[in-house]
Structures are given as C-alpha cells and as structure tokens.
TrEMBL record:
Keyword ATP-binding (UniProt): yes
Protein name (record): ABC transporter ATP-binding protein
Native organism: Oceanobacillus locisalsi
Domain of life, source organism: Bacteria
GO MF term set: ATP binding
Gene3D superfamilies listed in its UniProt record: P-loop containing nucleotide triphosphate hydrolases
Pfam families: ABC_tran
Residue ranges occupied by any ABC transporter domain in the UniProt entry: 5-230
UniProt keyword annotations, A-Z: ATP-binding, Nucleotide-binding, Transport
InterPro entries noted in UniProt: AAA+_ATPase, ABC_transporter-like_ATP-bd, ABC_transporter-like_CS, ABC_Transporter_VariousFunc, P-loop_NTPase
Length: 289
C-alpha cells in the first residue's frame, strides 16, 4: 500500500462553509504537513479522516479501506495526537493507561513505560497539571504504545516554547527514523515543515491548492522583483499575484522558466518560502496556485 489515506473527490458542506472536491493522497512513511489559513478546512479534513464527520460526496479510504465495516480495524492502526484534554482531567497517566490499554489489540505496556520515561512524564500527577507540551507528549506516548502506523496531529507545536517545540520535532523525527510510521500534522508554523516535512498539502477556502514534496514546491515557486514598467498584461499572467510599491513590483510565480524566458535578467528571482507562498496565495488572481 503506497497511500495511507486517500480522499477521492470529497465534499463536505456546512451552512457557511464547504470543503469541495478534495483529492488527497498521503504517502506511506512520509511526513506530510497540512497548512492553510484559519478556517480553511484543516480540522474538518482531519475529522473526515477520523470518521468524526462523514463526507456528503466522495470517498475516504484509510489503509486502503472504507470506514464502513472496518472502523475498529482502522482505528487500531491510527493515533490522533493533540494537546487538549481528551481524558478526564483528574486522572493521571496510570489511570488513563488502565482505561485505554484494553481497547487496543497491540497495546504494549513496556513501550508505554519506555516513552513515559523518555518524555519525562509523571505517572501519578493529574493530567490537569500538565502543560500543553506535556499533554501532547502524553497523547503521543499513547499512540506509540498501541503501535499506531498512522499518526495525525492537530497543530502539535502551537503554543509551545521554542525549546520544547524543537524537542517535540526531534522526537517526531526520531519516531520517523525508526520506520513504519506515517505522520500527518497541521500547523501554522512553517519552519516546522521546513524542519521535518517531506510533503506539504495546502488548503485554501475549502479547496486543496497543492500537495507536493517540499523539494518540488521549493523548486517550482519563486519570488520575482523588478521595476513596474516590466508589468504588462502578458507578463502579469505568469504571476500568481503581484504586489506593487514605489520601488517596483514583487510577485510570486510557479513557473520560473517562463519568467526567465519572458523577462530574463531584467528581474531578480529568489526562492519563495512556504510563508511567501501562503501570503501571495491569499487573494491570488488564479484559483490554482
Ligand atoms: N460542525 C460544523 N458546523 C458548521 N460549520 C462548521 C462546523 N465545523 C467547522 N465549521 C466551519 O468550517 C470552516 C472550517 O473550519 P475548520 O475548523 O476545518 O478550519 P481550520 O482550517 O482547521 O481552522 P483553524 O486553523 O482556525 O483551526 C469554519 O468556517 C468553521 O466555522
């Protein structure tokens, strides 16, 4: 199986928002970062993956299976990791383990205690005393203890201090290096992606704008700077969005060759960061970035 998750033409409509015709394939053994502005549809997409929501149209497959008739089997193999308190606040990790462990065929106590030690988590303190980062680690320890192959994380590093953030990213990197796992996580922190992601999926206003390897994305996009008099209807067409200022224009392109052919060395080009792409994609003329 090459794809852990496969969305085919998935649509989910709410009163004031819809996720439209989403095609998404998450590659096995890859780290995929999921980005998009607030309200773009990231959590909705993840809820569809977890079967907390059902699509109005289209098909969601996890590990090559539909949820119908396979829910238990699928959920055994996936872990959803997040920082808010999913467990009773007054419980400690020992209590939680007692409740959660029997639900999983592959639960391994030894692995659990190893991670608790590695993550330096207290077993006997109520979860409500845990910081955000500790809760995230506790949730990750549980997912790893039932040997989840597919791990989904909703903004794992949000609200963590830089040291803790780095530590968590290192833990995730080590987890990936051990092999056999696929990680999908949403984030607003683009440097996290630059640190650990192989692929990036970018959603905007309920539509998937692109899903590429980080490398392809970095090769495809560029920031172009030049003087305003270079802008004509023809040259503007090669840009996703153009910003004008007194000193000239700055624009994003996804076709570096075309810019070179048309404008040559009359413009300056530099690599676009993911943050640049997100900024320019907002309100871009072209729907397809
Ligand atoms: N159950 C629901 N009923 C109605 N509207 C909903 C429901 N769930 C989400 N929405 C709407 O769908 C849109 C997308 O929400 P979603 O939580 O998926 O965005 P997001 O990309 O995760 O945002 P953020 O980065 O802020 O967490 C929002 O406008 C939200 O109000």
């Amino acid at each position: 199986m090459e794809h852990i998750v496969e969305f085919k033409n998935v649509t989910k409509r709410f009163k004031d928002f819809s996720l439209e015709n989403i095609d998404l394939q998450i590659k096995q053994d890859h780290v995929t970062g999921f980005v998009g502005a607030n309200g773009a549809g990231k959590s909705t997409t993840m809820k569809l993956m977890m079967h907390l929501l059902q699509p109005d149209e289209g098909e969601v497959k996890i590990f090559g299976m539909n949820y119908a008739g396979n829910e238990k089997q699928i959920k055994e193999r996936m872990g959803f990791v997040y920082d808010s308190n999913v467990f009773y606040e007054s419980l400690n990790l020992k209590d939680i383990k007692r409740i959660v462990a029997p639900a999983y065929k592959n639960w391994d106590d030894k692995v659990f205690y190893n991670y608790i030690k590695l993550f330096e988590l207290p077993l006997n303190k109520a979860i409500k005393t845990f910081s955000k980062g500790m809760q995230m680690k506790a949730s990750l320890a549980i997912a790893l203890s039932h040997d989840a192959e597919f791990i989904m994380m909703d903004e794992p590093t949000a609200g963590l201090d830089p040291v803790f953030r780095r530590e968590l990213l290192d833990i995730l990197q080590e987890m990936m290096d051990d092999g056999g796992r696929t990680l999908f996580f949403s984030t607003h922190i683009t440097s996290d992606l630059e640190r650990i992601a192989d692929d990036v999926a970018f959603i905007q206003k309920g539509k998937m704008l692109f899903h590429d390897s980080m490398e392809d994305m970095q090769n495809r996009y560029a920031l172009v700077k030049g003087s305003i008099d270079l802008l004509t209807r023809e040259t503007e067409d090669i840009f996703i969005k153009v910003e004008r200022s007194a000193s000239g224009f700055q624009a994003l392109t996804d076709d570096v060759r075309e810019v070179q052919a048309l404008l040559g060395d009359r413009v300056e080009m530099e690599a676009a960061t993911l943050e640049d792409i997100m900024f320019y994609a907002k309100g871009a003329r072209q729907q397809h970035v």
